Amino acid sequence: MSRKIFAVGDIHGCYDKLAAMMKILPWRKDEGDLLLFIGDYIDRGPKSREVVDFLVRLRQEGGEFVFLKGNHEKMLLDYYIQQKDQMLYVANGGAETIASYVEGGIGRKAFVLPEEHLEFFLSLALYHETEDYIFVHAGLKDGVPLNEQSEEELLWIREEFIYSAYDWNKRVIFGHTALEIPFVTP
């Protein structure tokens, strides 16, 4: 039996949907299947802390995993570590994440990430490449070698990538942009 790759994108604090999906996903860690998460685990939904708890525990249980960074994890780290862009973060769903970590309301002094959550966020990769695929949160800038793409492009690019006809010689799997139906082009 050949190894399968399952890519999951943009959970956005929706723990109940993540748990329901994991119950039906035919991922088989004992057969070497890869479970790859494309970023944006947090913000907007009400249970970001529960999502991160779940992913940390899943990784601890073993198996083939890749966890990519999304623009929402970048905004969280900028806010939490560098204490910058607070309004940007809160306006983009960060208030929900902060509330999921703080009992009794939100406030910067009360918002503390558990050490294993902070380590999880700091360990996230910007992209993952296989023989046939490139996995990235948002997309790629035309003509720039994969290892030279900026973090900004990998996490935030949108229309410039989606409407490009550039051939990467591999299928690029991405999240970030909400679409009604799967977006597939040559």
Which features would summarize this protein structure in a list?
three-stranded parallel sheet; 186 residues; three-stranded mixed sheet; alpha/beta
Q: Layout of helices and strands, plus pairs?
A:
Layout: E1 5-8, H1 15-24, E2 34-37, H2 48-61, E3 64-67, H3 71-80, H4 86-101, H5 115-122, E4 127-129, E5 133-136, H6 151-156, H7 159-162, E6 171-174
Parallel strand pairs: 1-2, 2-3, 5-6
Antiparallel strand pairs: 4-5
Helix pairs in contact: 3-4
What can you see in these coordinates?
There is one protein chain. It is built from seven helices and six strands, in the order βαβαβαααββααβ. The longest helix is centred in the middle third of the chain and has 16 residues, at 86-101. The protein is of the alpha/beta class and 186 residues long. The protein has helices at residues 15-24, 48-61, 71-80, 86-101, 115-122, 151-156, 159-162; strands at residues 5-8, 34-37, 64-67, 127-129, 133-136, 171-174. The strands form two sheets. It has a three-stranded parallel beta sheet, with no helix packed on it. Strands 4-5-6 form a three-stranded mixed beta sheet, with no helix packed on it. The mean pLDDT is 93.
Strand content: 5-15%
Largest sheet: number of strands, sense, barrel closure: 3 strands, parallel
Count of separate DSSP helical elements:
7
Number of strands: 6
Order of helices and strands: EHEHEHHHEEHHE
Whole-number average pLDDT? 93
Structural class: alpha/beta
Quote the distance from N terminus to C terminus: 27 Å
Numbering strands along the chain, what is their spatial order in the largest sheet? 1-2-3
Rg is 17 Å
Q: Which residues sit in consecutive blocks of at least 5 with pLDDT less than 50?
A: none
